[in-house]
Amino acid sequence: MPRSMPIQNTVSSYACKALRAVSVLVLASAVLPVLMAEPAAAQDDGNANGTLDVNALPPAPGLIFDVQAGEYILFDGLVDRLSDRKYVLIGEKHDNPIHHHHQAQLVDALSKTETRNRAIVWEMFTRDQQNTLDHNWQDIPISELGPAMAWEDRGWPSWHDYAPIAQAARDNGLMMVAGNLPDPILRPMVTEGNSAIPDDLANQLDLPDMPTEILDRFNVEIAEGHCNMLPDSMLGGFSAVQFARDASLARAMSDATRIEDIDGAFLIAGAMHVRQTIAAPWHLRRYEPELAANDIAVVSLIEADDPGPDASLVEDYAMRFGAPDDIDFMWFTNDIARGDPCQNLGMGE
User: Residue ranges per domain, the chain?
Assistant: First the structure.
C-alpha cells in the first residue's frame, strides 16, 4: 500500500543526485566488464596474492548480483538468465524513479527476446479497475493513462515515473493486468479478516490459514513500517491484508497464463511483495504446484548504501528482506533524498 513521504528536493539537489547516479552507473558499466573479463584462473591466483576479487566487492549503484551464482553480472547476462523464466517479478521502491526506468528496461529487453509472451501485472492497479484499464489501454497516450486510472489520486508517486514501464508494455504488445485487491475491501479486512472479501474473489484466491512464520514476519515488518505506532491488536489484521494482496497478485499472474498465446507474466510491485519464501511467489506455488524451481525469478531493485569503511555486503542486503533466499537477482541503484517518514507522525494523522 503506498505511503506518502515528505520529499524536499530542490532543483539543484535533484540535479546533483541525477549527475551522481549517472556517474556511478557509467563507472560501474565501464569497470565491471574489465574486471569480469579476467580469466577465472587469473582471479584465483590474484586472490592468493591479495588482489581484487570482483565478486567480493560491496554493492554499488549500477551493479547486478546473481545471488544463487554468487557473482556480479552485466545487464545482458541478466536478460539471458531470465529469458525463459515463466514468471519474472521485479520489485521496487515506489518513490525511486531510477527503479521504474530499470523495470521498463528489463521488461523491454526480455520481451524482445521473444522466448515468452508475458502479460504484465501491476500492484498499482486494482481488480475493479480492469475494465477501465482495458478500455483505455489502446485508446489514449501513455501520458494520459495514469490520470485516467486515478493514479496519483490513489496515493501513488508520479505517473511520469512509471510511464516508461507502460510504454515498454505497449511497444511489445503486452497485456496489462490489474492485480491488486479492490481498495474498498482493505479497511474492512483489517477488522473482519477474510470474511470481508467478496465470495467470487475469495473462491479465486482460496486463501489458506496464514503460516505462523509468515504471520510473525509480517507483524514485525508492518509494525516497523508504521513507525511502531500501530496497536499490537491491529497487526494481525494488517498482516491478513498483506497476505491476501500477495495472493491476489499471484492469482492474477497465474490466471493471465491461461489466456491464449500468453505463457508467462511480469509483476511490477513493491520489493516486499516479490519475496520468494513469503510473498507472491509463495502463492504462485500454491496455485501451480507443478512449477519448477527456476520458473519463478525475483529481481529486486535495491538502493545501495553510501560507501564507507564498514560497507554492507550482499548478504546484509538479503537479510533486510527477511531471508537469504528471498531474492534471486539484486540490481543496485542510487537512493533519493527523503525526509523521515516517522517525524511528527501520530495515530490519526
Answer: 59-333
What is the DSSP secondary-structure string of 49-69? Answer: TT---GGGSPP-TT-EEETTT
Say whether 304 sits in a helix, a strand or coil. coil
Strand partners of residue 15? none
* Non-local CB neighbours of 43 within 8 Å, separated by 6+ positions: 53, 54
Yes or no: domain 59-333 corresponds to CATH 1.20.1050.10: no
Taking only the tens place, the pLDDT of each residue in 284-301 is 999 999 999 999 999 999
Q: Which residues contact 54 (CB under 8 A, 6 or more apart)?
A: 32, 35, 36, 43, 72
CA neighbours within 13 Å on the CB side: how many for 25? Answer: 16
Give the separation between CA 88 and CA 154, rounded to whole angstroms.
26
Name the strand (E) or helix (H) holding 221.
Answer: helix 212-225
Buried b (16+ CB within 10 A) or exposed e, 163-195: bbbbbbbeebebbbbbbbbeeebbeebbeeeee
Q: In the sheet where 329-333 sits, what is the strand order?
A: 71-73, 64-66, 329-333, 296-303, 87-92, 264-270, 118-126, 176-180
Assigned C-alpha cell, 258? 491461461
112-125 pLDDT, tens digit each: 998 899 999 999 99
- Read off the DSSP letter of residue 322: T
